[in-house]
Amino acid sequence: MKEECLICKAPLEYLNEDVLMECSICHKQEMSKTRCVKGHYVCNECHTKGIDAVIGLCLKEESCNPIEIVRKMMDMPFCHMHGPEHHIMVGAALLTAYHNAGGEIDLPKALSEMISRGSKVPGGACGFWGACGAGISAGQFLAIVTESTPLAVEPWGLSNRMTAKALESIGKNGGPRCCKRDSYLAIIEAIKFTNEKLGIKMELNQATCSRSHMNNQCIEEACLFHKKAKKKVAFICVHNSCRSQIAEALGKHLASDVFESYSAGTETKPKIN
Prior knowledge:
Largest sheet: 2 strands, antiparallel
Distance between the termini: 55 Å
Mean pLDDT: 91
Strand content: 5-15%
Radius of gyration: 21 Å
Shape: globular
Helix content: 40-55%
Strand order of the largest sheet: 1-2
Order of helices and strands: EEHHHHHHHHHEHE
Structural class: alpha+beta
Oligomer: single chain
Number of helices: 10
């Protein structure tokens, strides 16, 4: 079922400027740009109610695969198709997998800190700030494990580079926003960066989305994680002058409905054959 508003399931609308709104659940009044087309507004605190349950899940988790862990969080009652809960979930899944892969952190303390930091990134930051909360969450994860502060040297740089890499991947894939897709992209970048810079190797497997039917703005086959998205296959030889090009052409001719074909070489040549 496709739904957006937590109150009436109606589509959301995003305003260009903040207006005073009253949360339909707790009745707190605050400035916001987001409401449903029928006027309902839900504050960040109410939208993420129940997020503390991730601590119990993470402390019992033995997996080193943050994609696997975040998918379990997505199945929990507090998690909606879109919302600021993902700004916490990404970092929490990464902290858990990092710990299980041998990273030396106080996991309960780290998870509590992740909830504190992630909850401060509002819903809609991706569009209004130009910085997706899932990407920011990946940077917060690295800041926590490296104990970064504004006065730190290497940890400060690593944390900002982590955020930049996650946002670059999210931005390249384009909009409209999908909190599931953006969470996966941020986690994948964090896995690679953590292995390269910290030497902790978390597990990574291909994520496949099972929630496209719930997303009014799903880009379907254009999404890397859509179940109908085609795999990309590269045919490699030395100079990409004959065999690999023939294989690419045959792949496009015979199996274009199954995968996308490319060709490349491993060495350069001074001239084209």
